[in-house]
């Protein structure tokens, strides 16, 4: 098979094993293709497909070609190259690349040119991987469908009438459409895993603290984590190996042994225990349940022991999440004030607010800038968080939610005394159609029901394709989600890999 | 249901200007989400210690040293500011 064909087929079959990075690496070192040719081929695919998919907001062709050329020079000199070197990928547009427009999909950062690289971008550049461009997301990563982007609607490469999921919808769609080999996303409540599930690719949210958040535009700092999206578990692992590690610029990043995660994919999980939370199964029915139960049989046939477990506080995770996240959002997004950077609006229209002691001109700059610059969902969450943190309500909302968070973490600690992994579907649904949920907030929020607990508890979690359902004549993917103990990414990746290769 | 005054108060604290139409919209939407939060009242958490972040790490230190971004770095930062004067970011009168 020529590799052109492989690129165009990479998104077709969910169960097809695609080890894109290793295969492309072989081609590079065997001089079947140069890194510059490879990058150009991906730009050609983008040119051909992205008019429809709309995964990218910005292309970084100059950067990509310079990076590719550096790799070609190394190869020409006979130097050894690492697996990731010369392999093209995409970066979610809430992650800063120096000298490149970085919008977080918000009009308030429409013309923002990042003055520095995020630590993960610095690491990716140092690794020699090639950066093709920046991908679309829900504004400030707030959403589950990428419909909250004011720039464009990214469509699901498997069915153009459906959403790619969100908020890392552009990153997942780029990989699924063969417009990137790998991509980086961010995950605050499922924003890597749910779009990976909807697009039939692999999405990894590492343990909180595994990857530096420095230079990543903050949404909810105690929940945000950067991770990888790719066509296979191995590819996601290779990218994680490059971006993981402690960083002095992020005080919450954890000490790291600098593992090569791809070296831990043994393909054997016999004797491991996989726990299925009974609370997650209540109310799960139809085809997703069928696919899920089949996948349980597969885990059993691979020698894993399946156990029903209980995470008793599961019902409280979503309300706790929707208090903690907006509270942190309201604090983090206070920096967009029309003074230091980003959009400034001074239309001096009466903004209908109470006097609060600030000079009218300064107050109105704030009010007008944020009124025009932020989209609906962002304003809603800022206001929700402001309310939850305001005098008289703090104890009833934010403090209470933090206590509930402690209970949820305890549930996970108890569960992991008995089992090695927790397993459930990634989302209670397959990719939905555009507009299907955009008018029903709580329904949209429910899309995150299985994914938010990994953010609240901090555990690593991965979504990988476990099967398809036939809807309206199209085969659409279902994602399974494995969660593991804190900092056991190697065990987690091995379990998902073992499922994938069998 | 949140009152119009409550929405205006939240919006002012959040520094977000609202139109008359938006006030009504957020009254309905925020009230619905707040109702949903009532679910947490089922739980007794009086004995539970809250957690602010998940790793439990404390007192992470680094050198208190300023990093000089140089002229080009300074320029890269300044070109994002809406208004500058004499090498400073200009802020409106605060008094």
Describe it for me?
The complex is a heterodimer of chains A (about 500) and B (about 100). By secondary structure, chain A is an alpha/beta fold. Chain A has one domain: Amidase signature (AS) domain (Amidase signature (AS) enzymes). Chain A is about 40% helix and about 15% strand. Chain A contains 17 helices and eleven strands. An eleven-stranded mixed beta sheet of chain A has the order 1-3-2-4-6-5-10-11-9-7-8, sandwiched between helices. In chain A, a hairpin with a 2-residue loop joins strand 10 and strand 11. In chain A, helix 3 (about 35-55) packs antiparallel against helix 4, helix 11 packs across helix 13 (about 375-390) and helix 11 (about 315-330) packs across helix 14 (about 395-420). The longest helix of chain A is centred in the last third of the chain and has 24 residues, at about 395-420. Chain A starts with a helix and ends with a helix. A two-stranded antiparallel sheet of chain B has the order 1-2. Helix content of chain B is about 40%, strand content about 5%. Chain B has about 100 residues and is mostly helical. The radius of gyration of chain B is 23 Å and the shape is flat. Chain B has three helices and two strands; from the N terminus they run αααββ. Chain B has a domain at about 5-40: Histone, subunit A (Orthogonal Bundle), CATH 1.10.20. The chains are: A alpha/beta (about 500), B mainly alpha (about 100).
């Amino acid at each position: 098979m020529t590799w052109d064909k492989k690129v165009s087929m990479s998104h077709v079959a969910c169960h097809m094993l695609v080890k894109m990075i290793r295969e492309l690496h072989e081609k590079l070192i065997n001089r079947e293709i140069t890194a510059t040719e490879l990058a150009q081929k991906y730009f050609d695919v983008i040119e051909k497909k992205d008019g429809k998919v709309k995964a990218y907001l910005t292309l970084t062709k100059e950067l990509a070609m310079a990076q590719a050329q550096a790799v070609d020079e190394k190869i020409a000199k006979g130097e050894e190259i690492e697996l990731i070197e010369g392999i093209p990928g995409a970066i979610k547009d809430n992650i800063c690349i120096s000298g490149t427009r970085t919008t977080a999909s918000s009009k308030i950062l429409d013309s923002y040119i990042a003055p520095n690289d995020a630590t993960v971008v610095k690491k990716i550049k140092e690794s020699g991987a090639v950066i093709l461009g920046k991908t679309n997301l829900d504004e400030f990563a707030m959403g589950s469908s990428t419909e909250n982007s004011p720039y464009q609607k990214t469509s699901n490469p498997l069915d153009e009438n459906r959403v790619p999921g969100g908020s890392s919808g552009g990153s997942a769609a780029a990989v699924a459409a063969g417009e990137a080999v790998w991509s980086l996303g961010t995950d605050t409540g499922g924003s890597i895993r749910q779009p990976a599930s909807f697009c039939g690719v692999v999405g990894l949210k590492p343990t909180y603290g595994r990857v530096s958040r420095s230079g990543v535009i903050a949404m909810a700092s105690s929940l945000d984590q950067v991770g990888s999206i790719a066509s296979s578990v191995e590819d996601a692992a290779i990218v994680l190996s490059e971006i993981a590690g402690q960083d002095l610029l992020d005080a919450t990043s954890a000490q790291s042994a600098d593992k090569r995660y791809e070296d831990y994919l043994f393909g054997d999980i016999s004797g491991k225990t996989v726990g299925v939370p009974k609370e997650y199964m209540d109310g799960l029915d139809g085809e997703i349940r069928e696919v899920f139960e089949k996948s349980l049989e597969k885990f059993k046939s691979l020698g894993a022991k399946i156990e029903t477990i209980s995470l008793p506080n599961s019902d409280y995770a979503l309300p706790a999440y929707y208090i903690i996240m907006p509270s942190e959002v309201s604090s983090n997004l206070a920096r967009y004030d029309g003074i230091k950077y980003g959009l400034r609006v001074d239309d001096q229209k009466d903004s209908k607010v109470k006097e609060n002691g600030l000079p009218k001109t300064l107050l109105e700059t704030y009010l007008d800038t944020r009124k025009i610059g932020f989209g609906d969902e962002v304003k809603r969450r800022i206001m929700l968080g402001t309310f939850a943190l305001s005098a008289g309500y703090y104890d009833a909302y934010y403090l209470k939610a933090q206590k509930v968070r402690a209970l949820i973490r305890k549930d996970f600690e108890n569960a992991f005394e008995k089992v090695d992994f927790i397993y459930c579907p990634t989302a209670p649904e397959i990719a939905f159609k555009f507009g299907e949920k955009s008018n029903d907030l709580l329904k949209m929020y429910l899309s995150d029901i299985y994914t938010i607990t990994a953010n609240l508890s901090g555990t690593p979690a991965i979504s990988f394709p476990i099967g398809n359902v036939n809807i309206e004549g199209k085969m659409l993917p279902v994602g399974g989600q494995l969660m593991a103990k804190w900092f056991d990414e190697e065990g987690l990746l091995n379990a998902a890999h073992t499922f994938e290769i069998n | 249901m949140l009152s119009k005054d409550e929405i205006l108060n939240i919006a002012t604290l959040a520094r977000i200007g609202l139109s008359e139409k938006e006030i009504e919209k957020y009254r309905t939407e925020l009230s619905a989400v707040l109702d949903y939060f009532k679910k947490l009242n089922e739980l007794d958490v009086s004995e539970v210690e809250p957690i602010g972040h998940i790793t439990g790490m404390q007192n992470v230190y680094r050198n208190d040293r300023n990093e000089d971004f140089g002229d080009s770095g300074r320029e890269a930062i300044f070109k994002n500011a809406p208004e500058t004067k004499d090498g400073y970011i200009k802020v409106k009168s605060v008094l």
